[in-house]
Protein 1
Amino acid sequence: MINGDTIFALSTAAGKAGVAVVRTSGPRALDIAQDLSPNVPLEVGNIQYCGFQTPDGSIIDRGLRLIFHKPRSFTGEDCVEYHIHGGRAVIDKLLSVLAGHGLRPAEAGEFTRRAFDNDKLDLTAAEGLADLIDAETEAQRRQAFVQMEGHLGKLVESWRASLIGAMALMEAEIDFADEDLPDDLSQQIYPAITQVLQEIQNHLNDRQVGERLRDGVRIAILGAPNVGKSSLINALSQRDLAIVSDISGTTRDILEVHLDLNGVPVLMADTAGLRESDDAIEAEGVRRAQNRAQESDLRCFVGDKSKPQTFEGEGILDHFQEGDLLVLNKSDLLVSESGPTPSGTISISVKTGDGLDYLIECLSDRVKDIAWPSEAPRITRQRHRLSLQEVVHQLNDLLTHQDREVALRAESLRLAVRSLGRITGRVDVEDMLDIVFSDFCIGK
């Protein structure tokens, strides 16, 4: 990415649409805007209706032009947006003319990368913007918006500022050892360090809510063969995704479906029936089902209400945890009560639909408990978590060894500050920037 270039890109989705937006940014953006519409003076902050023409004077299209002077633009550079009709030929012609004027097509995420380079947003806000573009549920939108607004970055920077202040006292003791300084100067830092450490630990002990919300809460449907697991996932997704058969062992691999349960993204997995099998392929399916049970945030155990002791045997409840659901299917086949059932069991009939609404309500309540966003900023990426864990390690090391030489204690503090800086993009981030911004779509 070369920031001296003027770049352009289609910022709306590719294909035919009523309106398309083409964006330019860089030192030549205003000059090119004047060349495309020579009879319309540039007016910053106003929406201008213009004709856009080729170098020979022929009109490409008529639409709206928005001018943004630096630094009051998204990228911090001079920017121009062209709102034109969204036909493919119109878009292709305007992009071709911009390239003919010497502008360069933007790389993925380059507009946001320039905003970061020009201090318009920090790295966490840029990641929040990417998450907002990708958000598919209400909960994802809320979490991404909080992060895009800079709340996580501000929190991290407040911790960093506290540690920098503490580090200044230590550095003073090192640099001015011959001066008449208070003997306990460096000792004054420990209350502030302890507070920062406690706040970071509280955020790390969040059950990884932020990451779960970005990726989806994982739910595994488990049970013996032929209890209706595949029928249930078809009913919940309202699609015929899984093969349904009376033959035991039909499901041999994990089938996943993405759902939206009242705004929370869910990745639900249909698994092989849990039983002993001499069939190598079915046995592998059972092993994968057991592994998915261990990895999942929530397990939905399905049994057959028409058969007694439906949850016993084959280790079906070995993975049961507090908050998991017990579901008895085939309530429509029940002639008389077939025996006691565990407390809290939900009775349904996938065939008739009886009880499904209540099951969905229970599932929604569970996933909200696991991953509903709050107004407080969340850790949303593994790189955030790893950096904060390193901060905790360094601060614990510092507090545990307060009798060490001040230079060694200061080094622990410097490493903690550096780890916080990596989260917002303050230090040592060049290697990760291309990775972060390459996840963006072209034109953003």
Protein 2
Amino acid sequence: MGFCCDGFGWGGWMGAGGGWIGMILSVALFAGVLALLALAVVWFAQQSRRTMPTSETARDPDPLEIARRRLAAGEITVPEFEEIRNRLRS
């Protein structure tokens, strides 16, 4: 045949001179490492986004919304809620 090691080039198919199969496997391995690296970057970005406060959660809550929640939870009565609402509007 003229080639060493059953036609796969010097060093066999997994060696340094792996021929076409070695080149294809090297490219596939490199692509796999890049894909894992990209997934790691996306995962870390999502984790940091979950732990960092956003502008929505960082600002002070609306007092009227707090009163609505207290009314819904039964902590205040309807007349107390209306009094709070009237004070906040004026």
